[in-house]
Structure formats: C-alpha cells, structure tokens
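A further point concerns the way the authors explain their paired sequence and structure data. An entry of this sort, consisting of the sequence and the corresponding backbone structure tokens, reads as follows:
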Amino acid sequence: MFFVPFMVAAIAVMAGRYKQLNAEEEAERARCVADEEAAKARHAAEEAAENERARRAAEEEAERVRHAAEALRGAKEARLITERRWFEGVRPECRPSEEDIIRMKTKYLYSPNFLHFAVVGSSGVGKSSFINAVRGLSNNHAISARTGIVDCTPEVTRYPDPRPNSRIIWYDVPGAGTPDVPDWHYFNALGLYIFDCIIVLIDNRVLESDLAIIRACQQFINIEVFIVRSKSDQHINNMACDRMPPGFEPCDPDIDDETRRQLLQIKSEERIRFVDETRQNVQMNLESKNLVPQKVYIVCKDAMLAVWNNSHSPRAIDEAELLNDVRECTGRCL
C-alpha cells in the first residue's frame, strides 16, 4: 500500500520535471528565433543604411558631374564669346602682366641692345625657309633653321643674324592652327607681345589665325607688323603651267624655243595677276575685320637670297623693299 502513493508521487515529480525541461527547451528555441530575427533585422537595417549611403553618393556624384558639365559648357561659351569679340575688334580683356612680360623676355633671351623679329604664321607656310633667306643662308647651311614638309618647329627657336655687327635676332615660331597651338590663344600663349617686330607670313590665303595675330599686334604700340606673302615663285609657276597646253612638262629639257617663249610670256602675265590679286585679297581681309590697311610684301626665298647677295633675280618682287624696310625698322627702334 505504501508503494503506490510513492510511485504516484515519483511520476508526478518526473512529469513536472519533464514539463520544466520542455518549457526550458521551448524558451531556448524562442530565444534563438528571437536572436535570429534580431540579427536579420540588424542586417536589414545595415543593408538599408548602406543602400541609403549609396543612393546619396550616387546623387552627389551626379550633381558633381552636372556641375562639371555646366562649368565646361560655360568655359566653352566664354571662349567662343572671347573669340567672336576678338575678331569683331573688341580689345581683349586679358593682357599680359608685368610678371608675364618679364618671364617671356627671360625665356626668349630678350636684350634691349638688339631688335627681336618673330616670324609667325600657319603651319607649312615656309617660316624656316624665310628666316634662312632673310639671313642670307640657304636651307642646307650649317647654321640654317631646319626645314621640311611638315612643321619642323616644335617650339620658339632663336637665330642670331650672322652679318657682322648685326643687332637683329630672328625667332622661328611654331605654326598656328596645329593641335598644340590653337588659333585663338596663339599670340598670348607664345608670348608674342615681347617682340619688337612680327612678320606674319601668309601662303595661298589669309587665315583667321593670321588676322588674329595682326589685330593683337595693332593693340601693342611697341610692335611693328610686316605682312609677307611667301613662295611667290611657286605660285606664279603653277598659275602659268595651268595655262599651258595639255601634256606640258616644265622640267622637260627638250622644250622648244617657241614653247619656252610662250611660257615666259604667260609667266609675265600671271605674275602681274598674282601680285594684284594678292594685294587685293590681303586688303579685303583686313577691311573685313576692321583692321588698319597695310602693305603686303610678296617674296620668295631664292629671290631674297639673290637680293641679300646684291645679285639680280628675275623672280624678285618686293624682296629688296622688305629688306630695306627691315633695316629702317631697326634704325627706328634702336
């Protein structure tokens, strides 16, 4: 009889313990689930925060790109306005400072005891050949400026005049209108404002870059400008050959006397036409930009060399006058 109540009590205790264990396990499972949910919530919150940061960063980058694009567009518009005003005759607002002038004079070895001539113009116009000829040198002379089919002058190059007691320094300037030297800032970027004289060399036509240089020079009272049409002999020959009968070869050694006389007559006529048209074209371009009219010197390197050596050349046009005016310029400025 005593055993039965004991068993009932033991079973009750074990049932209670079992319920307690089940309750603890259930509580543990609930805690784990809660921890997992909390971790998921934290991860979701962190992911949301990261997405928000990424969104804000993307918006900030988009805003930065927009501002940069607006700044670039504004700079382009300002440059176009400056160019238009430049060619319309409005004085540039930006002029070289004293520091700029000193820096460029130092760079180009400027000396107040000499006259400094810069020969400028578009790429391939014949600046180096002109500098050689005006100094009395052939293109293959040991101290001549380098010449070639492509622009051979990567930077401003200084050439003293070889004549005894000469006080002229010549400068070969890179061609305008190249990728390295855009038209619109050619004058200021290369410091042309420090030179005493600038010779603007032109070829078949007057370019906007030529007119920009001339306009800039006319705004500096200390700079004298010469406009020179180069390669006159080549152009006259081309004009004459265009009028000759089909199949004509100017280098043919077997040309008969009649054909030779015909060629010389045509060359004489084309020479007159070339000179008249060149002068009219230059003046027309100057007037179109409200620039002061001035003389254009028509020359070729071979005739320049001949005049320099006191020899006669049938190709000569304005070479002697140009050399004389250069000498007079030297006398006025020194």
The beta strands are 115-121, 157-160, 168-172, 197-202, 224-229, 296-298.
